[in-house]
Amino acid sequence: MEIANAYAISYNHLKKVMTKLAESGYITGIKGRSGGFKLARPKEAINLGEVFRMTIENVAIAECFASPTNQCVISPDCKLRHILQDATSRFIAELDQYTLLDLVQGREGALAYHLELDVINVE
Predict the structure, then answer these.
(1) Minimal CA–CA distance to 50: which of 84, 85, 83, 25?
(2) What's 20's DSSP letter?
(3) pLDDT tens digits, residue range 27-45?
(4) Burial class of 86 by CB neighbour count within 10 A (0 to 12, 13 to 18, 19+)
(5) Which helix (DSSP H) or strand (DSSP E) does residue 30 occupy?
(6) What is the number of structural domains in the chain?
(7) Are strands 27-30 and 36-39 parallel, antiparallel or unpaired?
(8) Which letter does DSSP use for residue 45 in this model?
(9) In this predicted model, what pLDDT tens digit does every residue of 88-106 receive, in sequence order?
(10) Phi, psi of 58 (to 5 degrees)
(11) Which residues span the domain enclosing 25?
């Protein structure tokens, strides 16, 4: 609940994402009064593109991406669909170039400060 509050996101959505991350071996849950989550892999082994693909439910940025529910009448002749597909592929490929380490290296304290969280080093 503390993480959901810190990021101002839905607890139910966070729970779903955290379950996927735990099932995929990215994090480990710690039970008990002082429980929580910790990384199950080194920061440099957590690829942002992989995590994005695993946790995002739908990258449908336009109606035509939402097959089989696509109701767009111009889909068969629309060139924008291919442009958007290419842009989405490039976006995810760009994420593939980075790891969690790239996001947090040297910033752990600042991030914790902004989120009003305690930093716990468990390495």
Answers:
(1) 25
(2) H
(3) 998 888 877 788 999 999 9
(4) exposed
(5) strand 27-30
(6) 2
(7) antiparallel
(8) G
(9) 889 999 999 999 999 888 7
(10) -155, 120
(11) 1-42+106-123
Residues 76 and 33 in one domain: no
More confident residue, 65 or 19: 19
Q: Which amino acid is at 58?
A: N
Assigned token pair, 121: 């080093």
For residues 20 and 58, state if they share a domain.
no
For residue 60, give the amino acid letter: A
pTM: 0.72
Task: Take residue 23 and report the two structure tokens written for it.
Answer: 């099932």
Helix, strand, coil percentages, rounded to 5, for the chain: 55, 10, 40
Q: Are both 77 and 115 inside the same structural domain?
A: no
**Torsion angles phi and psi, residue 66, rounded to 5:** -90, 40
Q: Choose among 71, 73, 75, 96: nearest CA to 84.
A: 75
| C-beta of residue 110 within 8 angstroms of C-beta of residue 116 | no
55 and 94 in a common domain = yes
Torsions phi, psi of 34, nearest 5? Answer: -100, 25
